[in-house]
Specification:
mainly alpha, Rna Polymerase Sigma Factor, Chain: A, Arc Repressor Mutant, subunit A, 2 domains, 9 helices, 0% strand, globular
């Protein structure tokens, strides 16, 4: 919750206050929870609403383009990674990630691989990082992520695709280097 609140406010201290305020709101409003969404989604929406309000009150406004990062000028991945328009499945991945079977299992499970993934996640723009964490690390459904972060279906899908592409590129690059060592 703290990481999500931090996306909307200027400091960790303010984010901690937002989380505390959200917990108070959750506890006070629990009897009014109608079950139209999951409890988790409802809780995160309360947090996001409080964080947005607090961020606006602080005078901090970030345009959406700033959250997307500097990757707008260049494609996230090469066009060759996707099937062409003349294919049966245009736009789908043209290849799977590198075959990891030839790499000893201890390399795959090594801290280095986890470190590469963690560093890549840390370097992602805030919204991409949060979407991939919620979807792939915490196992949330697309609908839960959209509701919690107040995203459109298309925006959530684009953010997740960009994040996954960057993580795949980093892991592929690391594992290609691992094969030669």
């Amino acid at each position: 919750m703290l990481r999500l609140a931090r996306m909307y406010v200027s400091s960790r201290a303010v984010a901690e206050e937002v989380v505390q305020e959200a917990w108070l709101g959750i506890l006070q409003g629990l009897d009014r929870f109608e079950g139209r969404s999951s409890l988790r989604t409802w809780m995160y929406r309360i947090l996001v609403n409080i964080a947005k309000t607090r961020g606006q009150r602080e005078g901090r406004s970030v345009p959406f383009s700033a959250l997307a990062g500097d990757d707008q000028a260049e494609p996230v991945v090469a066009d060759s990674w996707f099937r062409g328009s003349d294919d049966d499945s245009p736009g789908h991945w043209s290849s799977l990630p590198n075959d990891w079977r030839g790499i000893p299992e201890d390399r795959l499970l090594a801290r280095e691989t986890t470190r590469v993934i963690g560093e890549t996640l840390s370097s992602l723009p805030a919204m991409q990082a949060e979407v991939i964490r919620l979807r792939d690390v915490m196992g949330w459904s697309a609908e839960e992520v959209r509701n919690a972060l107040d995203l459109s279906e298309t925006n959530q899908r684009v953010l997740l695709h960009r994040a996954r592409s960057k993580v795949r590129r980093a892991v592929d690059g690391y594992l290609e280097g691992a094969e030669t060592t």
